[in-house]
Amino acid sequence: MVLKKMKLLIILGPTSTGKTDLALKLAKKFNGEVIACDSRQVYVGLDIGTGKLPGGKWKMENGKWKKGKGFWEINGIKIWMYDVIDPKRQYTVYDFVKDANQVIDGIIARGKLPIIVGGTGLYLKAVLSGLPNLAIPVNRKLRKELEKLSLKKLQEKLQKISPKKWGRMNNSDRQNPRRLIRAVEIASTDFTSEESLRATIRGDFNTLKIGLTAPRQVLYQRIDERVVSRIYQGMIEEVKQLYESGLSFKRMRQLGLEYGILANYLEGKITNEEELVKILQGEIHGFARRQITWFKKEKNVLWFDIMDQNFPGEVEKIVNRWYY
RNA sequence: CCGGAGGUGGCAGAGUGGCCAAUUGCAGCUGACUGUAAAUCAGCCGGGAUUUCCCUGCGAGGGUUCGAAUCCUUCCCUCCGGA
Question: pTM here?
């Protein structure tokens, strides 16, 4: 049968550029549903710190949101891929691809436009074009053993097991224990990359990619303000509650940014709030930089500077032309 | 005004005669990233030329020395204590 490619609208960009706000607006306009492509919003209970409440203003004023299983609904618009798993569990790109694909298919079946809000570049890439080796599963036992090895030993191990793989790795990855471990893990299975890629790729999308940016200084300022307002919104309380409900500080540190830093704060490693705010801001700046580095390489993105007052209108026009 | 401590690169903070353009942390910048990705990892970080080259440089000026951020001296400033 002849398949018409499914239309998929994508909004991407670094944190704090207002991706979700834009997505909600467009969803309203074009009868869409939103899919959060975010590696941390998938966790239940990580709300304020991951920006699931899209800005205090939504919570306070237009507070018509409700939580469902796997989605939230804000002013009648569904945002998917929120709250799909317990934060104590580890969720991976693979899980995300599987879950998101189902959600996308569901939205299309309902005759609506799926709008992906992408903050996690790897996840977005995996959904759109698959990743080789994606289907090669984690081998917990092996990892546990490998984690005990020194960097040097890991390097030697990979060189022995798969010199080809080692040869392809760059200097930075060769010093990255996490990558080395995964490489050994892949090399220890019978899977071929082709098999694995075939298992995950779909390529049946007709995408329109809208990228949001802002001058660096503006971006940092927005981040800085957001940190403060999140604290006002009760982010510290949120983390306390997570701890009380059994989420360890160690796990929080794995979750990174606000959760990791607040874990340190609650443990007394950071003693005053001023310092806390500074650290949070700095870490998130770095995060935004990493996102930018990643997204720069993304092809076919129409970039918009959010400082340009007219950008929402422009975006709307473009989406309109593409969609109808 | 007296006594004490001190002024180092955006900040914090080492260094106390040559190995110092100056440890380190933060901030900043660039990049990698094929199942933890808000993670993890690499590089840069006074200026310029851009393989061991040049210039400016550790509050300011002067001095000692073959050689000073490091010693002497004068001045300016900050902090603490006393008047």
Answer: 0.90
